[in-house]
Amino acid sequence: xxxxxxxxxxxxxxxxGIRRVFELARELxxxxxxxxxxxxxxxxxxxxxxxxxxxxxGHNGYTVTQGIAELREKIRERVRQQLPHADREVLITSGTSxxxxxxxxxxxxxxDEVIIFDPFFVMYPHLVRLxxxxxxxxxxxxxxQIDPDRLRQAITPRTKLILFNSPANPTGVVASRDRVRxxxxxxxxxxxxxxxxxxxxxxxxxxxxxxxxxFNEQVLVLGGFSKAYGMTGWRLGYAHGPxxxxxxxxxxxxxxxxxxxxxVQHAGITALDWDVTATVADYRRKRDRLCQALRQHYQxxxxxxxxxxFPRVPWGNDEEFVAACIREQLLVIPGSVFSxxxxxxxxxxxxxxxxxxxxxxxxxxxxxSPPSP
Length: 373
Prior knowledge:
Elements: H1 17-27, E1 32-33, H2 45-56, H3 69-82, E2 88-93, H4 95-107, E3 113-118, H5 123-130, E4 134-139, H6 148-154, E5 159-165, H7 177-190, E6 193-197, E7 220-224, H8 226-229, E8 237-242, H9 243-254, H10 262-271, H11 277-294, E9 308-309, H12 318-327, E10 330-331, E11 333-334, E12 345-348, H13 353-368
Parallel strand pairs: 1-10, 3-4, 3-5, 5-6, 6-7
Antiparallel strand pairs: 2-8, 7-8, 9-12, 11-12
Helix pairs in contact: 2-10, 4-9, 11-13
C-alpha cells in the first residue's frame, strides 16, 4: 500500500511494548510470564451464568448507548452512597480504556496540554497525542508519590486535563488521602478537569481507597470490571462525572463503540454483588511473597495496591536487563514503556504461585550474576 494513505497521527504512536512481549510469549516454550496485567483467576461462575442466561433470553442486540438501565442504576446508587453530588451521571463504556478514549476525545483540542504522572499507564500519552494534545510529564521519582508542588508548577494556561491513576499501573503505589485531596483541590483551583482512573480500586492492601471525587465534584471517574472480576476480555467499564461531560461522552460513543457488549452488561449486574475480599487477600499474599523474596537484591517501593512491582534494574538499563530476562524465558516489561526513564522494569504478580516462584528464581539469579560484557 502507499505510505501516503496513512494519517499523520499513526506516526505519533508506536505499538505497545506490552503487546510485543505478549506476542513473544506465544513464541517461547513454557515461558515464565510475569508481564501482562491479566488476573490469574477465572470469572466467577455466577457471572458466567448470568451472561449465558442473557444470551438465552435474547439480549444479543444493541443496547441504548448509555448502557442498560438496570446496570446504570445499580452503579448510580453505589456512587450516590459515596458521592452525594447532585450533578453526577453514569455511562457504561467498552472497558475502562473505552471510557478513557471517550473522555480525552470529549475534552482535548489540538494544542491542549494534559498532565501525566511519570511512570504512567502506557495508553495515556499515546491517546493524548492522537487527540492532538500535548503530554506534560510530572516526575514522581524516587518513591512514585505525587508531589503537589510539582503538579502546580506544571499547570499552564493551556492545561486541560490531569490524568490520575491510583492504585497505579505500573508502580502499584496508592496515593494517600492527603495527597488525593491536594490533587483534587489543585485541579479545582485552576479549573482543570481531573480524570481519575480507578480500575484497580478494589486492590488496596493497606487502608481504604480514596477517590479525588470525594473532594472535587467536577472529577470524572473511570472504573471497570476487568481487574476485580477477571473480565478482561469482556470489555465492560463505566464512567461517572458531571452530567454535561457524560452527555458528550455518550454522544461520541454513539459514533465509536456504539454501546458496551450487551450480554456483558447483563452479567455486570451480577458481578457487582460478587465479594472480592478473598481475591484481594490472595493478591496481598502474592505481593508479600514477591517483595520478601526480592528485597535483598532489588530496590523498589512496596506497592500498596494493584498487582505490579516496579523495581530498579540491578545493572544496565531496562532494555538490557529485560533482554537478559527473556533469554532466561522470563517475560517482564521494560520500565521505559511506562516512563521517560530507562531505570526500572515492571513485574505483574497476577499469576499463579508456581509462575511467581519460577520468576523469583530467575530474577535472583540475574541480580547475583549479571551477564559478562
